[in-house]
Design a protein that fits this description.
With 453 residues, the chain is an alpha/beta fold. The chain contains 16 helices and 18 strands. The strands form four sheets. Strands 1, 2, 3, 4, 5, 16, 17 and 18 form an eight-stranded mixed beta sheet that branches. A five-stranded parallel beta sheet has the order 9-10-13-14-15, with helices on both faces. The chain has a three-stranded parallel beta sheet with strand order 6-7-8. Strand 7 (113-118), helix 4 and strand 8 form a beta-alpha-beta unit. Helix 4 (129-142) packs parallel to helix 5 (165-171). Mean pLDDT is 94; it is low at 19-30. It binds zinc ion (ZN). Zinc ion is lined by residues 179-180, 206, 258-259.
Length: 453
């Protein structure tokens, strides 16, 4: 049995590490952004030592413990706190052919995640204690990354009658959302904010005025016009965000915007935050990296909801994430089978997988000097932890050993055969990225380790 895991000479990168200098070359800046090389020792599920040569005792030949100490020599690699995703669709119960709790948590571990929040738009909808308890039990039985269910705001996500949040909260739900559907009725949204705040649950809104998006296939703009497809205008998101910010301010309740996609939402959030409105927000990797032009070849893998927008939205989202207007990154991991995607764009299901690719893809922005490394780590660790009220990860002695070891420069090509998810719906297959998740630890246990092909 392994008694200790010792990381030698790694760069411990905690949330909020110093920003990259804009003058230095991008990769150098990213590397300088990381801390000095240290050893990190993990014993009994915790970080017991952290510092220069802190693991020397364990690594020397004089202290051979016949295999009971695992020494990881990966000098210069980054050691980050375990990542947290507050927006994943694990499809259980009801669509286990696309994903289930076990496969979703394996994919999460492969992406460096140790905590995953799963959305309630399953069959049946998670609007009850029974479904929440089932998910919590499945997550525990899996024993890898931790699972945190999100309960529905309304019964059956029908947008009318509030769910029994006291029950789902007691069973382990960490937030409420009708994700996939928007709570469009202002009265229901007001009551939801009031009711959820009595349980200190954040209300996560999928901001979409459905009356403005009926039949929409993609973003409403020049590309939708060229392709002759019905568009989903930005304003359908912006009007809901604007209304909800007014309601959240009026009620004084915690409000969180899922998958922000428009420059207008970023502007509204920035203004509301400047006045102290209790709002937080998330952005997905695909909205940070792709535009509506990805749909020019009718690629159904790029059909997502909300849709991919335009260059100036992408710029606003990156700026909002960099300056903290957008608190966190969330994957919106949305697995679909080939039958859902190998069809015409109009019939294709929206969504793409994201758990395994999120960090490697976004490290591209860090390498390009477009996102400070410390901000990215914060946006994937402490910020999402605060949104849903779970333990905030720390990289220090005594902290729970939830860790991810990353080789920041290793180049690799995304190979569908090596993904852990049951689904393959992502436009990033075949893309070469720089940055590899080498190992993920949850409570001191290795829940993922990259094996060379
Ligand atoms: Zn959504």
């Amino acid at each position: 049995m392994i008694e200790a895991i010792v990381f030698r000479g790694v760069r411990a990168v905690d949330a909020g590490a110093r920003s990259a200098s804009p003058s230095a070359s991008a990769v150098t800046a990213a590397l300088e952004d990381a801390a000095a090389e240290v050893d990190v020792v993990v014993e009994r599920g915790r970080i017991t030592r952290l510092g220069r040569d802190a693991g020397a005792d364990f690594a020397g030949p004089s202290r051979d413990r016949s295999g009971r100490v695992r020494v990881v020599e990966r000098r210069g690699a980054w050691l980050l706190p375990g990542l947290i995703d507050i927006h994943a669709h694990l499809r259980e119960p009801g669509a286990e052919g696309k994903e289930d709790v076990a496969s979703g948590l394996l994919a999460a571990a492969a992406g460096g995640f140790v905590d995953v929040c799963c959305m309630p738009n399953t069959r049946p909808v998670n609007d009850s204690r029974v479904v929440t308890e089932m998910l919590v039990a499945k997550g525990r039985a899996h024993g890898g990354a931790r699972l945190h269910p999100i309960g529905a705001i309304t019964m059956g996500q029908a947008g009318e009658q509030l769910s029994e949040m006291a029950d789902t909260r007691a069973a382990g739900a960490v937030a409420v959302s009708d994700d996939g559907r928007c709570v469009t009725n202002s009265h229901v949204m007001r009551r939801a904010l009031e009711y959820a705040s009595t349980f200190d649950l954040p209300v996560i809104q999928h901001a979409e005025d459905h009356a403005l998006t009926e039949g929409a296939q993609m973003h409403e703009g020049s590309v939708s016009t060229r392709l002759g497809l019905r568009g989903w205008p930005r304003v359908a998101e912006d009007v809901i965000v604007a209304r909800d910010l007014l309601l959240a301010e009026y009620v004084g309740a915690r409000y969180h915007v899922a998958h922000v996609s428009t420059a207008g939402s970023v502007r509204l959030l920035r203004e509301a935050k400047s006045r102290g409105v209790p709002v937080t927000a998330e952005v997905t990797p695909h909205h940070l990296l792709l535009t509506h032009e990805a749909l020019l070849g009718y690629d159904t893998a790029c059909k997502v909801n909300p849709p991919l927008r335009e260059e100036h939205d992408v710029e606003a989202l990156r700026a909002g994430l960099s300056d903290g207007t957008i608190d966190c990154v969330a994957t919106d991991h949305a697995p679909h089978g080939t039958l859902d995607k190998n069809v015409e764009l109009a019939e294709a299901a929206p969504g793409m997988i994201g758990l395994e690719l999120c960090l490697p893809l976004l490290l591209g922005l860090v390498h390009a000097g477009q996102l400070p490394l410390g901000r990215l780590v914060e946006a994937m660790t402490t910020a999402p932890a605060r949104v849903v009220g779970i333990d905030v990860p720390r990289l220090r002695e005594g902290a729970r050993a939830d860790l991810v070891l990353v080789d920041p420069t290793e180049r690799w090509t995304i190979d569908p055969a090596r993904l852990r998810s049951k689904s393959r719906n992502t436009p990033f297959l075949g893309r070469t990225v720089a940055g590899r998740v080498v190992m993920t630890l949850c409570e001191g246990r290795i829940i993922f380790e990259h094996a060379e092909a």
